[in-house]
Every structure is written in C-alpha cells, then in structure tokens.
Amino acid sequence: MCAVIGCYLRITLAGFHRYSTYRQAVLAGTATNIVFGLIKVGILSGVFLARDGASIGGYDLKTTITYVWLGQGLLGVVDFWSEDYLAERIRTGDVVVDLSRPWNLQAALLATDLGRAGYSAIARFVPQLLLGALFFPFRWPDDPMVAPAFVLSTVLAVLVSFHIRFLLGLTAFWLLDSRGVRGFYGVTSGLLAGLEIPLTFYPQWAQTALSFTPFPSLLQVPINVFVQVGDPVLLLTQQLAWVAVMVAAGRLVLQRAMHKVVVQGG
Amino acid sequence: MAEASVYVRLTRAQIRGQLAYRGSFVMNCLAQAIAQAADLVVIAVVFSRVAALGGFDIHSVLLFYAFSGLSFGLADMFVGSIERLPTYIRTGTFDVVLVRPLGTLMQLFASDFQLRRIGRALTAFGTLVYVLSTADVHWSPAKILLLVLTPLAGAAIFGSIFVAANSVSFWFIDARELANSVTYGGSYLTSYPITVFNEWLRALLAYVVPGAFVAYYPALTLLDHADPLGAPLWLGWLDTPVALLAATAAALIWRTAVRHYRGTGS
User: Fold this and answer.
1) A91 chain-B contacts, CB cut-off 8 A
2) Of the candidates A7, A63, B101, B156, which lies 20 to 30 Å from A90 by C-alpha distance?
3) Chain B interface with A: residues with Cβ < 8 Å
4) Strand, helix or coil at A51?
5) What is the C-alpha to C-alpha distance for residues B115 and B122, in angstroms, rounded to an integer?
6) Which of A28, A49, A196 sits opposite B178 (nearest CB)?
7) Rounded to a whole number, what is the largest CA-CA distance in chain A?
8) Percentage of chain B with pLDDT > 70?
C-alpha cells in the first residue's frame, strides 16, 4: 500500500502542477465563463426588472448576480465535464496497470482531482470572484465564519463531483464505452445543479425532488453558504451525507468491477 | 461544383458509417436533443416567475429560441466539425489538408460530419411548429418566405461565427474554449430578447457578431412586434444579406489565418 499519506499528497501536487501548465487553456476557459456569466446576468436582471425587484425564495437581484459569478467561478473547480482518464484506461485495458499499483485507485484519482481543483480555485475562481465583486452589485458575507465554511463546502462539492464522474467512468467496465452515459450527464448536470439559474427559481416540486439527489451539493449548496441563504450547518451536513454515500458507492462499484477484470494476452 | 459533389460523397459515407452503430447513434442524437431542451426548461422556469422578459411574453421568447436553436443546430451539423481544427493543427494533420487538391474548409467540414447533431435542430424545430401553431401571425407569401429564409440565414451566420472564431486556433494552440464563447455563447444569447442585455454586450454579440439577425429581428418582423429599442420592422428582412456579408467576412478571415499557418515542424 501507499503506506504514508505523503504519497497521495505528492499526487495532489502533481495534479496541481499538471493543470498549471495549460495556461492558455485556463485563460480561454475563464474568458468563456465570463461571457456566459455576462449573458446570465443580463437574463436574470431582466427577471427582477419584470418583478419590480421582488425577491424569489430569499434571492434578490444582488444575491442572484453574486450567484452567477460564484457559479461561473466554481464551474471550473467543481468540474462537470472534463475528459475521463479512468474510462479511457478501462477501454484500452491499461486500467490493469493502475489496479496493480500499490495504492488505492479511488484515493489516487481523487488526489489528482483535488490538485486540479486547487489550481482552478486560484486560476479560475478567484479572478471571477474579483470581477463580480468589482464591476457588479455583489453580496459579500457579513460574518467572517462564512469564509472557512465556504472553503469546506467547496471541497465537499469537489468530492461529490469527483465521485459522480468516477462512478460514470466505472460504467465502462460494463458498457466498454462510457461516453454515452457521460454525455447524458454532461447535458443534464448543469441544469440539475443550478448552473443556468438558481434552483430557488424552480417550482417547489422540482426543488423537493432535487433535494433527494446529489446535484444541489455541487453548486447550489456552496453558493448558498456564501450568500448566507439557509442554515450553514444543515447545508454542510447535507453535503457530508452525500460525500459518505458517494465514497461508499465508489468503493462498492470498484470492487464489483475488479471481479470482472480479465487480464488478456501474455 | 466538382468540389461540392466530393463533399456530398464524403458526407454520405460518414452518415452510413455512423448509422452502422444504431444504438450509439440514437443515444447521441437524444443527448443533443436533451441539451437543446435544457435551454427550453430554463425559459419555462424563468416564465414561471415572470409574465414578460425584456418586454416580451413567453411566445415571443420561444420564437427567438426556436429560430436560434434551429440555426445553431443546422450550422453545428454542417460546419461544427471545424471544432477539430486545433487537434489537426497540433498534430500536424493540417499539412495533409493543405496538400490535397480541394478547398481547406470543405475538407474540414466533410472530415467529421455528425448526423447526431440533428438532435438539436429537431428540438428547436418542434418548438417552432408549436409556437407558430399558437401564435397570432398575419401570414402573407412574403412572411412564409421569411420563415423559410430565417433558419437558413441564421445557420449561415452561425457557420460564419464557427469559421471565424476557430481561425484563432492558428495563433493560439488551446483556443477551442475561446471559440465556444462566441459559438455556444451566441446560441445562448440569441435565444433571448436582446433588450435584456446591457448596451455594450448588445453591441458586441448582437451587431459585431451579427447574432441579432439570427432570431430577434426576423421574429419581430414575423410577429409585427415593434422593437422596444426603436429599430424599424423591415430590419428582419436584412437577415439574408447580413448572412452573406458574414460568410464573406468569415472566408476572408479564414484565408488570412491559413496563410499564417507555418506547420508544427518535426
């Protein structure tokens, strides 16, 4: 086993380093996030203008604009759509090498993803937070405790997001090609997590239904912690519960999958 | 014209190839349709909170959405494969494109024709049929012509945006996402009345990149709806000339970009 925790730490740093080499891509991605952010701000401002400023479920115009910029920034950190290394390794059979390494595959891949998220937090989240705060009506928290709670909530969001992508990748053991499943996730996850519009705007029945899924934990919950809508303890507990469920599901499915592996060739 | 027949033959071969994997094709097609329908859900949620957005009711906005989606879907299907350009440049495959006795653009369009992208166009077309069956349009032969020309002109405008934006790849290696900001961003923006956006975003994404002629102006003309910003009603008729202008501009940008190409060496 990767006896000391230091090994995973090194993998995390390697993940951080790997993403920091794609500077142009990060810049291009941030520019794209900003353009989409501007469009969302326009549409949602139109909504409040038509309502004569009346708020929706605790969200006023200022909170909603803050939501947009936090969401655009978190998008790169939480990562809905990146290429799946695992699925590709399963398809080509290279996963056998990964499985025989002296580490826990789930933990090792998570370590890489945390490194990636860490880099994105600096290169993508912070600039967009500043952009939103400097040029738009912005709702800063009025309690210093919000900062650590938001960081924790974001880490939990990355954990949930990683495990969803991990599980989708594992389906390649059964489907051989997981691109279809991941494609469906790609086109629906933004809508279900509240990327386009805050989930608060959805009809009550839809919000209730979504509260039984991990999707709000990806974006809505960390943002709610930041803009101080809802009880922070309850929000973090909700995320923690999903992390526990997803980690367990990941372990179980990986174990099942390993029974399926047949090493071919000699 | 010989070139067009080569394009048709190459495309037909690609379609045959893609239809060979029927299950995968249907699933991909469905994912595209869902991606387009997600925007429809957002519009429905927005209008569950307001009666009008930027001075337009849901029927007008659905008409913008339908024109925009149909235009984007058609453009994506016929020229969307140009998104692979960064890969061709990076791997040096573009050299092969240059030495063949066929137009460079034609070759790229035909290199990866994706019939599954029809999913987007189908969702938008369904919406168009629904809106027109409920809307109160005073039909005339001229308006029927406008109805037919609008998605074609819109597709040409989006196609031009695809070509012009992806030309940036000749200068920046990882610019794919940057191109997405004007292609997908343009599709997102044109689904809404331009009245909700602030002046300079309107100036940039509606007139410099002529997105306003994809859906907004033609829809106003079709509905005899006066523009809240005071533009004359006949502006909708200019969508086809604007599309021709955009195509010419895109062709010029493409030629300049290709001349800039120096290969990747090795």
Assistant:
1) none
2) A7
3) 24, 27-28, 31-32, 34-35, 38-39, 41-42, 45-46, 48-54, 172-178, 180-182, 185, 188-189, 192-193, 195-198, 201, 205
4) coil
5) 12
6) A28
7) 72
8) 97
Q: Is the pLDDT of residue B264 over 70?
A: no
Cα within 13 Å of Cα(B165), Cβ side:
28
- The Cβ-side half-sphere exposure at A12, using a 13 Å CA radius, reads 11
Q: Which of A76-90, A107-121, B73-87, B246-260 has the lowest mean pLDDT?
A: A76-90
Spell out which residues of chain B touch residue A196, defining contact as CB-CB under 8 Å: 38-39, 42
Put simply, the answer to whether B53 touches A183 (Cβ < 8 Å) is no
Q: What is the pLDDT of residues A180-212, one digit of tens each?
A: 888 889 889 999 999 999 999 999 999 999 999
Yes or no, beta carbons of B178 and A31 under 8 Å apart:
yes
Report which of B212, B6, B222 is spatially closest to residue B128, judged by C-alpha positions: B222
d(CA A141, CA A63): 11
Between CA A192 and CA A207 the distance in angstroms is: 10
**Beta carbons of A197 and B46 less than 8 Å apart:** yes
CA atoms within 13 A on the CB side of B27: 13
Residue partners of A256: CB distance under 8 A and separation at least 6: none
pLDDT attached to residue A262: 63
User: Is residue A88 classed exposed, middle or buried when 0-12, 13-18 and 19+ CB atoms within 10 A define those classes?
Assistant: middle
Q: What is the mean pLDDT of residues B98-119?
A: 85
**A202: closest chain B residue by CA:** B45
Closest chain B residue to A196, measured at CA = B42
- For residue A266, the model assigns a pLDDT of 46
Output DSSP code: residue A59: B
Span B18-33, pLDDT tens digits: 888 888 788 888 989 9
**A59: which strand partners?**
A56
Higher pLDDT, B6 or A197: A197
- B122-159 pLDDT, tens digit per residue, is 999 999 999 999 988 889 999 999 999 999 999 999 99
Task: Collect all residues from A whose CB is shorter than 8 A from any CB in B.
Answer: 22, 24-25, 28-29, 31-32, 35-36, 38-39, 42-43, 45-47, 49-51, 56, 177, 180, 183-184, 186-188, 190-191, 196-197, 201-203
Residue of B nearest to A32 (CA): B181
Q: Strand, helix or coil at B56?
A: strand
* Of residues A89, A107, A105, A113, the one with CA closest to residue A162: A113
